[in-house]
Amino acid sequence: xxxxxxxxxxxxxxxxxxxxxxxxxxxxxxxxxxxxxxxxxxxxxxxxxxxxxxxxxxxxxxxxxxxxxxxxxxxxxxxxxxxxxxxxxxxxxxxxxxxxxxxxxxxxxxxxxxxxxxxxxxxxxxxxxxxxxxxxxxxxxxxxxxxxxxxxxxxxxxxxxxxxxxxxxxxxxxxxxxxxxxxxxxxxxxxxxxxxxxxxxxxxxxxxxxxxxxxxxxxxxxxxxxxxxxxxxxxxxxxxxxxxxxxxxxxxxxxxxxxxxxxxxxxxxxxxxxxxxxxxxxxxxxxxxxxxxxxxxxxxxxxxxxxxxxxxxxxxxxxxxxxxxxxxxxxxxxxxxxxxxxxxxxxxxxxxxxxxxxxxxxxxxxxxxxxxxxxxxxxxxxxxxxxxxxxxxxxxxxxxxxxxxxxxxxxxxxxxxxxxxx
Length: 422
Ligand SMILES: [Zn+2]
Fold this sequence. Notes:
33% of the residues lie in helices and 12% in strands. It is built from 13 helices and eleven strands. β3 (101-107), α4 and β4 form a beta-alpha-beta unit. The protein has helices at residues 9-17, 38-41, 86-99, 118-128, 153-165, 225-233, 259-264, 276-289, 307-316, 328-332, 335-345, 359-370, 398-418; strands at residues 30-33, 74-76, 101-107, 135-139, 169-175, 190-194, 203-206, 238-242, 295-297, 320-323, 349-350. The protein has a single domain, classed as Metal-dependent hydrolases (TIM Barrel), CATH 3.20.20. α9 (307-316) runs parallel beside α11. Bound molecules: zinc ion (ZN).
């Protein structure tokens, strides 16, 4: 028997994190497997409980910090423009004010590869530019025809048009293995347990997968040279997401450290994709060859598990930055290592979130960065999504917080502007 579940708000938020929310979402989850109602799950004994339903609650009597406002003014360097009306932008501003978010980038929902829509930039620009001091509006890249001869000039022309209109950066772009503008195909992914609240359970959903693969270009492909140079000429930083969490590429078995999360974003079963290590190498090669172009790597360049390597990339490439977005959980699982890394590289790591604004979102990220709280969960919320580990505060010192929240972002923008021609 098949039971169908409606896509709920939490599922919607998850999809938005990948930019998928910008595409038409299926009204109903596909091929959903049934889960027992939450009340029943509370009585399932350990020998029958599934890992996906595991929702431990901390028993420790220890401090719980409430941090609704950042200690210093913050800039969100990874925010997808969700608003479609002026009122929705006004609401984002209200949440930003309450959370002490001074400003934010706004990635416009233009789509990538074959789905690019110029009017999505125009529409988003119109409503977000009403607050010029609060939003840095980014455009995308028109990658239509990436697999056709003659690709390139039209992309540059559209980039110039967006810059003229007011775009100040480019992103978020993606290469998870089929190149920028490419399309990955493969069996549908398990989308995790979402929706029945903190007691666990909920629908197991599967996202719709495209059926026709498209090969785009990896970051260091010569076909992209002119585009990256144009970004430098126009003084636009590029927010580029390359690869994905490491465990998405590993076998989905009992040895996988990020198992339930890795399974919902799995790439180990997708044919024809470039692997994690090669993608990171391609990214660095692009940054090296285009040293005037400022790259802001999304999600700690997916090197949250190997910060030493990320530090080496920073060392070799002064034009390479990274944002913290959507990696708060991974980073807070190793709080001392991450704190040491941030102390060294706070001038190159920028704050970012990646999901729709809410007070809860900001309070949680501030708690992770500022507090020394231990062993806390926020399961079913984005940052704890499908992980079974607890989180820990990093207790970052003031100087590091100032940099990560704001100054590193301003220096990245300034570096990009200083390279502009004309
Ligand atoms: Zn991303």
